Amino acid sequence: MKGNQGPVPPACIVHMGEDVPEAAYEIDLTAPEAGLTVPTSASPQGPATHTISHGWQFLQRLLSSYSGRLLCGMPDGTLSLAHILARIGESPRMALPAELRIRSQKHLDSLSELGRMDGGWGRESTPDWSDCLTTCWAITALENFGWPVPDESYAFVRACERWDGSFAASPANKQQRSAPQAALAATVTAVRVLREINPRTEEYLVHGLSTAEPAAASYICAEVLDWPAGLASWELLNAASRLTASLFPEDSAGMADLLRCLLRLRLQRSWPVSAQLRKLQQPNGSWIGPAAWLSSETQDKRTPGQLEAALSTASAVASLLLADAQPGLYFGSDLPARRFNEGWRG
HSE-up of 273 (CA within 13 Å, CB side)? Predict the structure, then answer.
């Protein structure tokens, strides 16, 4: 199998399907462990330096406490772990603690082994078929760490495309109606992974963005704005920009995705949103709250709290790293400091 060359930047063992008691998911990740301190030199020197370092420590404790197969055995675990590893892998090497990178690669090895015969990865509730969104994030995680991706994995994603340009949960479900938000999430993510779009998909997304629900809209816009430069038309970019301007999420996952959008659009509103996101960090270094885009078309059990927190934390840290890497002079960072203390809607 021929491997992919890598991502294109934008302009304890549990068997699958085994019932695991909820209590088995919960490990105390609040107390720092020996050897888990992240050196300041490993983080970017910006306004979010301490916040980012604290977030890395939380993720490092989680990956130290759970094996990759145990995480993937949780409800929505494979998709969650793939997304967490993808966000860790997209971070600049100098901003990532060495121990966290090593542990991430061990979990990536577990994720890679769970790939299915059809080239995809699936949810725990659907052992008989792979899932488009899960597969897309598994591909992204592999790419971001420089690992080869089987050609069959890209072929699986392509096989999920419907006649109207949207992407189904799996090739077997192409004739079934999908929940609108689930289809939008799968489609924008699939386009980013495949790095190609046809006119039907473009038309579907322009219409879909006009009807996107606020709960998942931040994720959908962030994915579109993360596409490689030149892939999205001006019409689609304008639709994503207009939708971004109307978003005021209060959950940490939605706010992290919104910050990503604002940074891609180079808007000054990035700074008050970044400040508000930092305020939402918990004492143990995590961000809490569900990710609306994660909702599946099948009835999974609720994603365990620790994994849910790790998902939000990985998204928040990745967005804050993007903010710290931006040339502030062009973003209005020289505005009066009082603006950061005011309500972020202002």
Answer: 31
Name residue, tokens 């998204």: 315
Nearest-10 crossing angle of helices 214-225, 199-210: 140
State pLDDT tens for residues 107-152: 999 999 999 999 999 987 777 789 999 999 999 999 999 999 999 9
pTM exceeding 0.70: yes
> How many whole angstroms separate alpha carbon 173 and alpha carbon 152?
18
> Is the separation of the CB atoms in 258 and 184 below 8 Å?
no
What are residue 334's phi and psi, to 5 degrees?
-90, 10
Q: Decide: 85 and 140 in contact? Cβ < 8 Å.
A: no
Q: At what angle do helices 270-279 and 252-264 cross, to 10 degrees?
A: 160
Phi, psi dihedrals of residue 149, rounded to the nearest 5°: -115, 130
- Match 């995809």 to its residue by tokens: 120
CA-based R_g, the chain, Å: 19
Phi, psi of 337 (to 5 degrees): -60, -25
